[in-house]
Amino acid sequence: MLNDSIFKELNHSYAGYTKYANGGKIPNGFEGYKPDFVLANADQTDFVIFESEVTTNRKTYIGNMVKAAEFLSKESKRTGTLVIVMQEHDNTKVVQIVDQLKHYYKWMRSCTNLKGVWVIKDDLYKHPDQVNPLPIDSNEFVANSKHICDSNLDAMNELEELLHFSDNLDLEVDAKIKATYLMTSYVIKKRVDNVETQYYLNNIELYYYSPKHKDTCVHPHYFKKAGSFRVHFSGVDITFASNLSEKAESDNTLREKLKKAGNYPSLEYKVFMKDQELTYGGFLIREIQEVGTKKPIKGPLCVLCELFNFEGEALHLTIEKGEPRDIKIKTDKRKNLGKNAGPLFAEKEYAFIVE
Q1: Spatial CA neighbour of 293 closest among 187, 205, 193
Q2: 354: which of 202, 262, 324, 328 fits an S-S bond (Cβ 3.0–4.6 Å)?
Q3: Whole-number mean pLDDT of the chain?
Q4: pLDDT tens, position by position, 39-65
């Protein structure tokens, strides 16, 4: 059990974030709101809110979530995540609390900037033999905690949320957390007639474009739904939701530029696109591995052939929850960017690779 006063003095960590409050009245909060610990990013627009609980009272956990949601809703620019570290009892387990919270989160998430709730058992968050607790952006934290969507809030909603990025966050940190979860907990399922093959993701690269993240090596696409497969000359992506088709419907100039650009956009086109309020992107798949084998399929075009070549009546590809695996993931720079990427984005470690 983590004593409340000890919990408030622990070295809670999340890369790029520093202590904002630890037990007292939270700055710029509402009257009486005193979470156990809070981390904030550099400009104090995104927060990680910690609560430590030993109680079996479910209302306490719901109250933690409602209070965090209210704090984050006080200003439109605030976003954040709630982390609940709890002592389990015979009648109060992590999975039960997650199952309880999911209904309230689903109801309130349209009116709050609370991005999600993570629940973890106290001795997994901080092992008695360890001085410091798990960093929130570590593989170990993701593997040992439960996200509010893990209790089947909605499988597709979870995937869509996993593939959604915010300009208010440190993208390298946020992407690593999400890529880790995607690579440890999801598989690609390939069904040809009645035969199914599953693949782990072993190497993926982030390509994300937004008004505040103008990475010009990201190719525009029209896929409105996150989690689709997009085939192109470099391989296959798992898509992020794009607002491109919606914008093009009401903008004749944009629509004509898109038609003219085709698959080989000009410099003029790229300059034009920089001025548009557009969001699109995806994870390029560089390596997969068939579940139950140790043989990887390496290279984007080899992955494309493996997934889309088939003999039969019908091919069906999905990304679904699979059997979780215990792996370590390293980050690196993306490969073969060519002249499309400026020096800023060329240096970003947006590649996520199983060690």
Answers
A1: 187
A2: 202
A3: 85
A4: 999 989 899 999 999 999 989 999 999
- Residue 188 has, within 13 A of its CA and on its CB side, a CA count of 25
What count of other Cβ atoms lies within 10 Å of the Cβ of residue 130? Answer: 10
Contacts for 71 with CB less than 8 Å, ≥ 6 apart? 26, 29, 30, 33, 47, 49, 78, 80
Dihedrals phi, psi of 254, to nearest 5 degrees: -65, -45
pLDDT at 255: 66
> What tokens were used for 73?
């809703």
Helices and strands (H and E) in the chain: how many: 12, 16
Cβ atoms of 34 and 24 within 8 Å: the answer is: yes
Selection from 71, 92, 83 nearest residue 36 by Cα: 83
- SS3 category, 350: coil
- Compute the distance between CA of residue 197 and CA of residue 192 in angstroms, rounded to an integer: 9
* Closest listed residue to residue 119, CA positions, set 76, 166, 83: 83
CA distance 27 to 57: 28
- In percent, the amount of the chain with pLDDT more than 70 equals 88
DSSP 199-261: EEEEEEEEEEEETTEE-TTSPP----STT-EEEETTEEEEEPP--HHHHHHT-HHHHHHHHHH
| 155-213 pLDDT tens trace | 556 787 788 887 666 788 888 888 988 999 899 999 998 899 999 999 999 999 888 88
Q: What is the DSSP string of 247-306?
A: HHHT-HHHHHHHHHHTTS--HHHHHHHHTS---EEEEEEEEEEETT---EEESHHHHHHH
